[in-house]
């Protein structure tokens, strides 16, 4: 007998899309845009979100019966609306939206946007920062690291290496070092602003990796 595939994430995505009408009790305001969510889902999937501006205490107070109709409104700084929307999508579905869709949403109507490669890298970095901030480290963080590996270019490789070093992401760091020391890439990397801004530790790691790669190939 055929068994249909799991569809819980599909139903939760529909719940998120209809949150303003179906049981939403938390509203996040990011860059002037409102995002409606459900404290029960957040408590189970991303409890760090409920700590924004003492939200956890407010939700507990409401759950205790002080005001069943009240919605907790939280203003969130330090993250773009597009990245926050993608974060909520992950919380409800365990998946990130396609990166190109996020870039299009972030750059819509902006005639001064950078190249598509740079925009994709920035978006992937924003998502990684969100995963770190809200402690979504088991799945979202490695998904974001994989995105950074997929979109890496000589122009942003040094900055991504520095990001990996700063956050202690060893696999991402190793990927960057391998990429930067590959034939034809190093010369382009050295000419970038990101290379000039590398910390002494990251530069030392890069030079040691290049020397090790050269020694092993000789």
Question: What does this protein structure show overall?
Answer:
- The protein has a three-stranded mixed β-sheet.
- The radius of gyration is 21 Å and the shape is elongated.
- The termini are far apart.
- The protein has a domain at 152-218: Alpha Horseshoe (Serine Threonine Protein Phosphatase 5, Tetratricopeptide repeat), CATH 1.25.40.420.
- The chain is mainly α.
- Helix content is 60%, strand content 6%.
Q: Key terms for this structure?
A:
mainly alpha; 3-stranded mixed beta sheet; Serine Threonine Protein Phosphatase 5, Tetratricopeptide repeat; 6% strand; 218 residues; 12 helices
The CATH top-level class label of the domain at 152-218: Mainly Alpha
CATH fold-level name of the domain at 152-218: Serine Threonine Protein Phosphatase 5, Tetratricopeptide repeat
Q: Low-confidence stretches at least 5 residues in length (pLDDT < 50)?
A: none
**Termini, distance in Å?**
59 Å
Number of helices: 12
- Average residue pLDDT: 89
GO biological process, one term: protein ubiquitination
Family: Belongs to the Tdpoz family.
Pathway: Protein modification; protein ubiquitination
Organism: Setaria viridis (Green bristlegrass)
Strand and helix map with partners:
Layout: H1 8-17, E1 26-30, E2 33-37, H2 39-45, H3 55-63, E3 72-75, H4 81-93, H5 99-107, H6 116-133, H7 140-151, H8 154-167, H9 170-180, H10 186-190, H11 193-196, H12 200-217
Domain BTB: 24-100
Pathway: Protein modification; protein ubiquitination
Family: Belongs to the Tdpoz family.
